[in-house]
Amino acid sequence: MYRTHTCGELRLTDSGKTVRLSGWVQTVRDFGSMTFIDLRDRYGITQLVFSMETDAPLCEQARKLGREFVIQAEGLVRERSAKNLNRETGDIEIEVQSMQVLNASKVPPFTIEDDTDGGDDLRMKYRYLDLRRTPVQRNILFRSQLSLEVRKYLNEKRFVEVETPFLIKSTPEGARDFVVPSRMNPGQFYALPQSPQTFKQILMVAGYDRYFQIVKCFRDEDLRADRQPEFTQIDCEMAFVTREDILQTFEGLTRHLFRETLGLDLPEFPRMSYDDALRLYGSDKPDLRFDMAFTPLTDLAQGKGFGVFDSAELVVGINAQGQAGYTRKQIDELTEWVKRPQIGAKGLVYVRFGEDGALKSSVDKFFSETDLSAWADRMGAKPGDLMLILAGEEEKTRKQLSELRLEMGRRMGLMTPGDFKPLWVLDFPLLEWDEDTQRFYAMHHPFTSPKPDDIERMASNDRTMLKNLRADAYDLVINGVEIGGGSIRIHNRALQEKNFKLLGFTQEEAERQFGFLLGAFEYGAPPHGGIAFGFDRLCSVLNGQNSIRDFIAFPKNNMGRDMMIDAPSGNRRGSIGGVAA
Length: 581
Ligand code: ASP
What we know:
This protein is α+β, with helices and mostly antiparallel strands. Among the domains are: 92 residues, CATH 2.40.50.140; 122 residues, 2-Layer Sandwich (Gyrase A, domain 2); 78 residues, no CATH class. It contains 16 helices and 22 strands. The strands form five sheets. It has an eight-stranded mixed beta sheet, with helices on both faces. It has a five-stranded mixed beta barrel with strand order 1-2-3-5-4. Strand 20 and strand 21 form a beta hairpin. Helix 14 packs antiparallel against helix 15. It is globular. The relative contact order is 0.10.
């Protein structure tokens, strides 16, 4: 037997027991007559004591152990004289009577501690060592707990877990496919699923009624901190449901997950249309931990001789409450910030509402105090506030102001950790027009249904009319992060064909790629809809973190490489037929 207890288990009440522990040597502290070892496993750390007086050879042996050696030690639990209050096992130590080295370890290339000295690449190469660190381990355990809670909730709601294949043909979600050559069908390829979208719809046709899967999806796109080429979704689909049923069910799931993992009851889930989200926050995933909504000023700001405003499609501002104290230098710096290529604004206009009620702006030359006071009124600004205004082409200006709003939120400390503000964004456009390719793309994916009132208008050939079609689609946003998205689907062959046509598919292409789905729709497809949550993202949002990588046991780096196994690689000989060559 390797152990009677784990390294996180023993307490004062165990004093006097003879125990056996196994684990990794975290530190060795040699005080001459005594040697202390911190022994670690995933449950915690327990202090081992060796004394020259009681057993000199054993103490000598302990002294020579290196970091990360794997040992097994047997001894007596006793109360510590100097307690460690930061550790659950901090009241006790083990007076070691015998010890065995189970395996030696090379000196690790970085310290296995909460704050490590290892850089990203090094830690990814030695991922097994990084995974031993408590913060990383905590994330991986959290993930495991979260998936268990997902299963509990969905099982309770009578969802069936079904696995769908990975070797398929393209399921479009707007990214590139990863392809896998087929040895048995030379010159032919499988695509890895960007999502199980078509399969889950087929399962609804097949009568499974409620499906879920915690599933890997693969998308070949440029990587960012919150993206990985393979990532995990909680993928769900339901038959005989309206949008309302789906929103309720998954609001329930989200609440359940927050309650069970964080012990937190979420506030209400407000709903906002896509149009309002853009109008008020310049983003389809607004962070609602703070307000600072947009106020349009175009009508007030134009016609006073300020060319930048006069030629703008949109003049729009936000009110940063209590920030009138911003110095000239700080405002210059903010102006530089919005002018960075990543944001791309031409400049920034400010109006400072002094505590004394005086209004001072960067455009005093063109606007009287009365003008500025009309802006302040509309923005709801009070003495002590700072109004920040951008102008230009509508869509771009909204995006820029959205970034500025978030930056001000950060600077003003309004993105409180531990504060969670969920939001449903509804009624997305069905189609997105792309100027470069002169065609429509599906904003969500081609299987999304238009809202019932818009179905007839799909027959139109008028581009503006088509641009205005609304989809029965929804996103769940928490703190400005999209954590889930889905839609009510088309379940009628003719309507699906019409949608493919709008998306520029010829009838042959549609038949070749999605004939199986169109065919299935002719055999009693029930009305259905669903949603998928980004599982990795959900993990990071619940933990108030940005990077999903920290919640993936074996993530890829920014170049899509697995640094540990060194993949992808050009040499496939090693794996032909599964036989080492
Ligand atoms: N398949 C969609 C996605 O991956 C989710 C859904 O519509 O259910 O975003």
